[in-house]
Amino acid sequence: MKKTILGISGAMLMCLIIALTYYQTSSKTAQLKIDQISKGQDNPPDQSQQVLKANNTIDYSFQNDELKITFDKGNTWTTVPIVREQLFEGEYSGNKGELIENSFILSKNRAAFLYSDGPDLSSKKIILKYSLDQGKYWQDAVVTEQYPALRFRKINFLNENFGYVILSGDRTVSQEMSNVYVTHDGGRSWRETNPSNVTMLIKDGGFVNENTGFLSYGYINPEEPDLYVTEDGGNSWVKATINIPDQYRQIFVTAEMPFKEEDHLAVLINQGPNGDYEGGKVKGKFLSNNNGKTWEFSMEVKPNETE
Fold this sequence. Notes:
Elements: H1 2-38, E1 59-63, E2 66-70, E3 78-80, E4 104-106, E5 111-117, E6 124-131, E7 139-147, E8 150-157, E9 163-172, E10 175-183, E11 191-192, E12 201-207, E13 213-218, E14 226-230, E15 238-239, E16 241-243, E17 254-255, E18 259-261, E19 264-270, E20 283-288, E21 294-301
Parallel strand pairs: 16-21
Antiparallel strand pairs: 1-2, 2-3, 4-5, 5-6, 6-7, 8-9, 9-10, 10-11, 12-13, 13-14, 14-15, 17-19, 18-19, 19-20, 20-21
């Protein structure tokens, strides 16, 4: 009987010890919870404070409505003072998680972003916001005081002084206006070149030097390339002659931006949006020995050879 009483007493003592330990642990946990709440640590991480990641040494990322840039692979980030929606205004329905291709420059010596601003939905200023010191100081340069709803936009610099902007807008089916602007002072001021007077949809364009530039046009479903060239910095534009072999007619239909290659110019002409020759990805390479006025077929170029 005595042993039974002692056993029951020991069990009760053990239960009391376990209960007291649990109570003390629970109290500490509860107090820690209270402390965390009072310090704002109990809420889920704020998306605005999420860690930004960079895939490249010089890169950009969106954090909520802010555009951030980095020059050290994400160790530090700088906010670009632009309202996010201004980067996408116009006729654009693509992924707004990424900047529009060719609408910006991000390099060691220049960060530049095209955007539109103004209350009139049908006509806005087109502005270039740029920094030459990795985002420490920003400047705004007006490319044009008014422009209709943007579709195509492209900016590039060939050196620290000369750059160009190509815009198109006011599209109606397969017709639109397009304009070229150039700068000779690093982007501080811009001058519109003479128009090409072509109203087809612009596909690509640019300059290979300060005098020689190109504009590539086409319809929604093009049948042949329409490439225009200037040799006087945009004062005049003439249609280039592209001699397409018979077997490639209505196959190679859209000219891309020409480029320098050794002692001549070269251009790739793709199959447009509906091409199906060899899977639709093969391009024709054409060469010019007279500064882009005439082009002769050189070879087929497979996709992995164009990268």
